[in-house]
Amino acid sequence: MSFTKERKAFGTTVFQMQNTKFTLAELAARLQVGWAHLDWALKRHMAGELNTAEASAAKLWHTEMQNDVCDAALQLHGGAGYMNEYPIARLWRDARVTRIFGGTSEIMKEVISRSL
Ligand SMILES: Cc1cc2nc3c(=O)[nH]c(=O)nc-3n(C[C@H](O)[C@H](O)[C@H](O)COP(=O)(O)OP(=O)(O)OC[C@H]3O[C@@H](n4cnc5c(N)ncnc54)[C@H](O)[C@@H]3O)c2cc1C
């Protein structure tokens, strides 16, 4: 977010553009819901109640969201987002593998589908 408040384009800051504010608002809302779900899953895990399908759903949903969030944030950086000088470049790159390791998103869906 700080980058968009500093970066100027078309006589204003990137943050002031409606698309940027809507994108950031959507990400904030998704993160808010995501944290609530993560707390729910952790609480069930600590109590020994989290089942395989629920854990797979959590892995699937949170890693996909991590990728969505990092990708949208990178886009708001423009070309700077692709440069290693900016932390978002590393965050975006690191996010990509989370849909693969620990079980791919496709396998998470396969596991969830077995409980349906
Ligand atoms: C950085 C990194 C660190 C890792 N660390 C570890 C580790 O510490 N310990 C460990 O054991 N492993 C580790 N792995 C391995 C990782 O768990 C596997 O890469 C991952 O489970 C996917 O397996 P695979 O690479 O054999 O892909 P494949 O099984 O060859 O899958 C290829 C593609 O086919 C899809 N696919 C496969 N089966 C199905 C299916 N039944 N239905 C639909 N789609 C399917 C996959 O989703 C994927 O898109 C690591 C991988 C990476 C990249």
Automatic annotation (TrEMBL):
Keyword tags: FAD, Flavoprotein, Oxidoreductase
One GO MF term: acyl-CoA dehydrogenase activity
One Pfam short name: Acyl-CoA_dh_1
GO biological process terms, semicolon-separated: fatty acid beta-oxidation using acyl-CoA dehydrogenase
Claim: Flavoprotein is one of the keywords in the record: yes
Domain Acyl-CoA dehydrogenase/oxidase C-terminal, residue spans: 2-116
GO CC annotation, single: cytoplasm
Domain of life: Bacteria
Record flagged with keyword Oxidoreductase: yes
Co-factor requirement: FAD
PROSITE patterns: ACYL_COA_DH_2
Sequence similarity: Belongs to the acyl-CoA dehydrogenase family.
Protein's name in the database: Butyryl-CoA dehydrogenase
UniProt organism field: Pacificimonas flava
